[in-house]
Amino acid sequence: MAEPVARPAFLISPDCLATVRRFAKSNMDAPSQTKLTDEEIRRYSRHLVLPEVGVEGQAKLKAASVLCIGAGGLGSPAAMYLAAAGIGRIGLVDFDVVDETNLQRQLLHGTRDVGRSKLQSAAETIHDINPHTAIESHETRLTSDNALGIFEHYDIVIDGTDNFPTRYLSNDACVLLKKPNIYGSIFRFEGQASVFAPHLGGPCYRCLYPEPPPPGLVPTCAEGGVLGVLPGVIGVIQATEAIKLILGCGEPLIGRLLLYNALDMRFREMRLRRDKNCPLCGEHPTLTKLIDYFQFCGVEPEVPAAPQPSPDEITATELAAMLRSGAKFALVDVREPAEWAICRIPGAKLLPLSDLPARHAELPKDQLVVLHCKGGRRSMKALQFLREQGYQNLKSVRGGIEAWATEVDPGCPKY
Questions:
Q1: Domain 313-407 sits in which CATH superfamily?
Q2: Is there a catalytic annotation at residue 373?
Q3: For 42-100, what is each residue's pLDDT tens digit?
Q4: Measured between alpha carbons, how far is 156 from 141 in angstroms, rounded to an integer?
Q5: Residue 148: what are its φ and ψ, rounded to 5°?
Q6: Alpha carbon of 178 to those of 169, 202, 203, 365: distances in Å?
């Protein structure tokens, strides 16, 4: 998911690398107590001949535990490569089921897994990659009530989330427990990665993004799209950082934000520093426990208990009846042209939400304007904007073209 603009960056503490080495030495179980079997020696032979890994390093990997938040786009490559590398215990947090739209990028799952629990599918795939890796499944939504209890049993946390409330929650829990938080984010053709670990000398996520963006400003991947191979790149970077931290080798992404653009095939880097005024990891922290992160981000939970229809909305069935009756109104599709090319409602005019400020005068003010998008979120934003411009007779189609495909036209493709 895209992020708000980062603040200017500066170099981290020169003692950071030494601190990381101490973390690798003290925070993992003693490798002398972890023996490799003959089968494991054969399996990891390409690691064992690396001076930076060797038998001792491979024993560290076997003794280590990593928690992956999400078994989706980022969690798939991260968990698969961590298992292949010989991480002894991998935890997975997810509560979703496999959907057809996941298969373009979430390689933990296959066509036969559609409709199954993601954690069941993921556990089978990882076990097939490496039966020596223990898988612990946490089939639950991560919340302020359970995060600390889950995180405390792992050495490192990999953040593969796709929403801001869970991202801030993961960051705060890691800081409070002094766990490295390996961050990744993707959107369209761009990705980001970093390691947030104030206890190792670097900043936390709040140092980079003190406040979440206004609700609705950043499109979701379902709305904006994502290149299927992009999470593979960022997820592998996250797995690489976890392995480096465990081994205590190389220079981790602590105090550095790695920016990747797949279209340009370029990597850029921003240097970061810890914010002394950060409410979580600053000199005088005021945030000492987990909070309500949906409230903090100004958004509703993904699955509200009882969603209430708005008087500004009509159903897809009602729209179909209006079209059949020949009623005079303007039907406006506020999706993007690429979505319009996939499917459309007959009689609709394409006017993307991004073009609305410059082109809203094209819409009539003397008749009803009915707006729709994919799921109803963007059309409600368009409705609010048009109302501010003086339009009075407005409606939004609840559930958008997805509801149209379900209620009216089963032949309309869903995407």
A1: Rhodanese-like domain (3.40.250.10)
A2: yes
A3: 999 999 999 999 999 999 999 999 999 999 999 999 999 999 999 999 999 999 999 99
A4: 19
A5: -65, -40
A6: 14, 12, 12, 57
Query: Residues for the chain: how many in total?
Result: 415
Neighbours of 199 (CB within 10 A): 16
49-73 b/e (C-beta count within 10 Å ≥ 16 → b): eeeebeeebbbbbbbbbbbbbbbbb
DSSP string, 219-266: PPHHHH-B-TTHHHHHHHHHHHHHHHHHHT-S--SBTEEEEEETTTTE
HSE at residue 229, side-chain half, CA atoms within 13 A, is: 5
Residue 84, judged by CB atoms within 10 A of its CB (0-12, 13-18, 19+), counts as middle
In the CATH scheme, what is the code of domain 16-28+64-297? 3.40.50.720
DSSP helix/strand/coil, 200: helix
Q: Where are the beta strands (DSSP E) in 95-145?
A: 134-138
Give, for 400, the enclosing helix (H) or strand (E): helix 400-407
**Residue extents of the structural domains in the chain:** 16-28+64-297, 313-407
CA gyration radius, the chain? 24
Catalytic-labelled residue, pool 68, 221, 297, 343: 221
Domains 16-28+64-297 and 313-407 belong to one CATH topology:
no
281 is catalytic: no
**How far is Cα 39 from Cα 45, in angstroms, rounded to an integer?**
10
Find, among 239, 279, 301, 213, the residue nearest to 64 by Cα. 239
**For 289-321, how does the pLDDT look when each residue is reduced to its tens digit (9 = 90+)?**
999 999 999 887 755 444 567 899 999 999 999
pLDDT digits (tens, 9 = 90+) for 146-200: 999 999 999 999 999 999 999 999 999 999 999 999 999 999 999 999 999 999 9
pTM of the model: 0.79
List, in sequence order, the alpha helices (H) in 64-220: 75-85, 118-129, 147-151, 164-177, 205-208
Quote the CA–CA distance of 239 and 253 in Å, as a whole number.
12
Considering the candidates 16, 68, 297, 373, report the single residue annotated as catalytic.
373
Partner residues linked to 97 by β-bridges: 117
Find out whether 257 and 192 touch, Cβ atoms under 8 Å: yes
- Could you tell me how far CA 234 lies from the centroid of its own chain? 11
